[in-house]
Write a structure and sequence with these properties.
10 helices; 2 domains; alpha+beta; Beta Polymerase, domain 2; 331 residues; Methane Monooxygenase Hydroxylase, Chain G, domain 1; seven-stranded mixed sheet
């Protein structure tokens, strides 16, 4: 078994009067904060390091199933209560403009009476502003416990859900312009891709709504009374995110309808042109068929002006029909 990687750990300790941060922390630093009266926030950037996860698990007495869930980065969104700590598994989402797709990173949160540990798949997250807020001595987060810190982390993740959905809103506007200008098969494929991403977003966010519902009902003694109102506020916000997703899905369905209508209109235009051409050639075909019967007693066949006369007749019929169609506004 390899040694735990200290560079993958950062530790923030704070209370009402004190604030400490260590970027390249060690397992010993984590253990030293275990019994402190304030709040310790430990962030772990490598969930693939089994030795590191086992060491953190030993410090905070985490169940073996918890370690397995954290290491499984493809785990579904969920919440579990182990008595002396709560486990929350959520998805941090980001819109990849290069591939027009969603990048989902698992975030596991474990918090007890005086600590909170976050486990990420890779370095980098959305919590820079929260860390800056913790540095402020009279900030709300400095006066509250790890349950409030968990609430703020979830709130930050939910805020980014809005940003992700709005990014697809910008993409939908681009597709609307493309549908009006020149819809193609690639346009339909792009729209179908957006619809698929909306379904994926819903799969990530809907279970998070259930988690926030449970947390806002104070089903655990680790959730303090003064924190419940904040969880309810985040619960309301995630409902707004769900509504935004549903509205966006409706817009995507509308784009598909517009595409189908555009393709139908194009087909109708082509069929109209073909019908006009066919209609014009019907009397012309009759005329050339009449004079192609090769009967012996057909005076026009022996006439010097028979051939040009028939051509003029055919031109007059075709021109007259075109003029008639134009006046009827069929062409």
């Amino acid at each position: 078994m390899s040694e735990p990687n200290a560079s993958a750990i950062s530790v923030i300790y704070y209370d009402k009067t004190d604030y400490q941060i260590k970027i390249d922390a060690s397992i010993e630093d984590c253990e030293a904060c275990r019994e402190k009266a304030g709040v310790t926030w430990i962030n772990v950037d490598k969930v693939t390091d089994s030795a590191l996860l086992q060491s953190i698990g030993s410090i905070f007495n985490l169940h073996e199933l918890t370690i397995q869930d954290i290491a499984n980065t493809g785990h579904r969104v969920k919440q579990e209560d182990f008595g002396h700590y709560l486990l929350l598994i959520l998805k941090m989402l980001e819109f990849d403009r290069t591939n027009d797709s969603i990048i989902a990173e698992q975030l596991s949160i474990v918090f007890g009476k005086n600590y909170l540990v976050t486990f990420q798949e890779s370095p980098g997250d959305f919590f820079g502003e929260l860390r800056d807020e913790i540095k402020i001595a009279d900030s709300v987060v400095r006066k509250m416990g790890p349950d409030f810190l968990a609430c703020r982390i979830i709130d930050t993740i939910v805020d980014n859900y809005f940003n992700t959905v709005e990014s697809f809103g910008d993409q939908i506007e681009e597709k609307e312009d493309e549908l009006v200008a020149n819809p193609t098969r690639n346009t339909l494929n792009s729209i179908q891709g957006i619809k698929k991403n909306m379904m994926q977003l819903r799969q990530y966010i809907w279970p998070a709504r259930e988690i926030l519902s449970d947390l806002s009902k104070k089903n655990s003694p680790l959730i303090k009374d003064e924190t419940v109102a904040y969880f309810r506020d985040v619960y309301d916000r995630i409902f707004e995110a769900m509504d935004l997703i549903e509205n966006t899905r409706d817009m995507v369905s509308g784009l598909i309808d517009i595409y189908l209508s555009s393709m139908s209109n194009k087909t109708n235009e082509v069929m109209k042109v073909l019908t006009v051409v066919a209609t014009i050639f019907i009397p012309l075909t009759f005329i050339v068929g009449l004079y192609g019967m090769n009967f012996r007693n057909m005076p026009e066949l022996n006439s010097e002006w028979g051939y040009p006369g028939v051509l003029l007749l055919m031109a007059a019929v075709a021109g007259g029909m075109l003029l008639y169609f134009h006046r009827k506004k069929w062409i």
